[in-house]
Amino acid sequence: MISAPLLRRCCCLLSRRAGANRAAWTRRTVFLRGGPAMATGGKSSRSSIHRYTNRLINEKSPYLLQHAHNPVDWYPWGQEAFDKAKKENKLIFLSVGYSTCHWCHVMEQESFKNKEIGKILNDNFVCIKVDREERPDVDKVYMTFVQATSSGGGWPMSVWLTPDLKPFIGGTYFPPEDGIYQVGFRTVLLRIADQWKRNKNALLENSERIMSALLARAEISIKGEDSPPPFPEVMARCFQQLSESYDEEYGGFSEFPKFPTPVNLNFLFTYWALHRASPDGARALQMALHTLKMMAYGGIHDHIAQGFHRYSTDQRWHVPHFEKMLYDQGQLAVAYARAFQISGDEFFADVAADVLLYVSRDLSDRAGGFYSAEDADSYPTAKSKEKREGAFCVWTAEEIRRLLPEPVEGASERKTLADVFMHHYGVKEGGNVSPAKDPHKELRGQNVLIVQYSLELTAARFGLGLEQLKTMLAKSRERLCEARGHRPRPHLDTKMLASWNGLMISGFARSGAILGKEEYVSRAGRAAAFLRGRLFDASSGRLLRSCYRGKGSSVEQSAVPIQGFLEDYVFVIQALFDLYEASLNQSWLEWAVQLQRKQDELFWDSKGFAYFSSEAGDSSLLLRLKDDQDGVEPSANSVAVANLLRAACYSGNMEWVEKAGQILAAFSERLLKIPVALPEMARATVAFHRTLKQVVICGAPEGEDTKDLLRCVHSVFAPNKVLMLADGDSTGFLYHHLPFLSSLERKDGKATAYLCENFACSLPVTSSQELRRLLLL
């Protein structure tokens, strides 16, 4: 935290912002750290007449376009707005959000559509709107400030800047008018404008001090003789910290709100793989599998139309925040596929397939890319004039009884399909959402489906056979899905991001390899080809950040394309490695190595080591940051460590191993003290110190003996391995970069496996059983 004296003069403006009763408003204030005062609406109204149009009308971002008809004179982030602020000596009001953000909708409806508030903003500030998903670099700079100067952060993010872009006041959501616990947005604006007129020099001095403190706080580099921390200590401490926060009853790692956090689950799987025979290893696996099961049973999982919502507002994973994000689907598909790989339980395979079905159907562009998200809010009916959160997903008991009226044959009592369905999914006549989780009463009388009983218990309750019950529930879900299809759909953010597409490609590729589903691997390949065609500039070798669905089935790009950020490179490179292992198409390896070189060129910190999140040269960015936390997405440097080690194995370039060690050394202090903040990087310490196993299969790609060995490799969870096929093509990428492959031969004319470390290989293996045994060592 930045010390209080630096902020005293600024923060006195907002002295009425209190936080004493925050806990009572957890339902939708998890990101609203300014205080517990709630929005009065949170509902969007239909309107076909636009009285105002601002510069955002020329943008491609769905979020910016949502604000194009506000009475606020919004500017996109750019030189035009910066020049205006300096020329007119005005403060900048920066508002950052994203198109499926519920509270962003609330603040727009209450404040940004308000003519009087719009006039205050236009008269006193240069107003800039930023889509955080388009410009994560801008978002991270100012979120760092908000988190350092308050009790938290989130979206919408509201920050006031001097004309030279230095922040001095920040927050998240503000209600339009003063309340008991929180000062209103109108008052905040007037006070800040007044302070700028009367105490400009003091504000400028404070902004300089704040920036100096932020610069010092944000520095991550190797200090002195720092070296990569020992993996046993890092892994043990991370497991201990996760275990202490684990919810024994419902899974997950907090009481509420609860996020899926696949990075934690991936860590636990790796910890189990290292300690299979120990009590701690067994506990790690139990924690991961139980969490995944409870999530799949909960309301955070869409039981009717598949996929997962963003997070749960309660301990039981029951009442979600209803938006669906692409990055969650990609990571969760991998987590559930791995759970199947480890446990052999088809339940987890079914959930992985469920996620991929949702993405294929609802988040896929015809050209091959993946859309970013679906909104939480929608109109309850075609005639409704206001949107409500969750309206697309919830049910009344009356609706379900009307849709499922048939009597159940063979039941021990006279019951209908509705009776069985409502029992199994916890549907109540008056609704099953606690009022404490519904402060706006948007879900009153509604039901969020949650699996309340096992199939065995429900079958026993109604005297049904297990297969009969499964058929009945599937038929009921299909009927509800058809009925839901007649409701107005939530807003779909059709922006396509390189980074999130990378995560989703990994989801399809890894799931396809583990589950033996060629169609998933093929879908991953289509998406990778889309990225290469639409979000890659072959002339410069650079990735682009985003593209957009245009009219018809076209794909459009901004007039000035946004260049890719570090996260775009690391997630796409990871995806290409995953896709190679699933498809064995070496062109993906070649592109991955090309992108890794470009990533080094653009983002590597040659003095302090590790990668910056953004490239140098943008004068509008006050800080070049290095993320130091794995959150709902793993941090870019965490993934980069594994990418570098994989790239070295496939290319023979050992400088990349050295770089991986330098990243771990730069984050050494954090990894040793609070590794739970970096579980993905903690996993990577194992791969670095133990070195990756190169599993080389020598054989014809279409040979059944080759396929048998490949199936064996994909069936085993061995986290620190890379797979490659030596097919005898001396002109291919692998033979060109790895001369040792030429010395490997098939044994007795059969497909043969070799386990290699640092390019030195073991004795040949032709039996899948023996290969499995060696992989588990």
Automatic annotation (TrEMBL):
Any one GO biological process: carbohydrate metabolic process
Database matches in InterPro entries: 6-hairpin_glycosidase_sf, 6hp_glycosidase-like_sf, Ssp411, Ssp411-like_TRX, Thioredoxin-like_sf
Residue ranges of domain Spermatogenesis-associated protein 20-like TRX in the record: 53-214
Record-given protein name: Spermatosis associated 20
Gene: SPATA20
